[in-house]
Amino acid sequence: MYLVSLLRDVVARTSRVDGDGLNVLSDGSTVHLVLYKFDTCRFCRRVFDSVDALQVNVEYRDIRRERRWKKELMEVTGKSQVPCLFVNGVPMHESADIIRWLEGRFRQAGG
In terms of pTM, does the model score above 0.90? Predict the structure, then answer.
């Protein structure tokens, strides 16, 4: 039963509803975020947790569900490594770097 419960939790946490990825920063500028991912990737889940905590609007592209996203990621970055966050069209790999960037832009004052 524990495994079934754990799997349900993972699916619930990683079932992402596509947003448009547009966010307004505190200085009034906008940023478009697209995250290439797949649901069972533990590093992607770390990014999901940060996105959720910070309430960031992200457009999700699952490279295992849609071959075109994997192809696009390969064409732009030369690899299929996820997570990969595109910030206004510029790719960023490594979950720790992505989380640090998100926290630096979206963390509420005093948070």
Answer: no
What does DSSP say about strands 59-62 and 84-87: parallel, antiparallel, or unpaired? Answer: unpaired
Three-class DSSP category at 36: strand
Whether the Cβ atoms of residue 85 and residue 78 lie closer than 8 Å to each other = no
What the block records as the tokens of 56 is 């960031």
Quote the DSSP letter at residue 111. -
Tokens describing residue 101: 């960037």
pLDDT (tens digit, 9 = 90+) per residue, 89-110?
Answer: 999 999 999 999 999 999 864 4
Domains plus CATH for the chain?
2-106 (3.40.30.10)
Return the residue matching tokens 């996105």. 51
Q: Residue 7: which region, alpha, beta or left (left: phi > 0; alpha: psi -120 to 50)?
A: alpha
CA–CA separation, 1 and 98 (whole Å): 34
Q: What is the pLDDT of residue 69?
A: 97
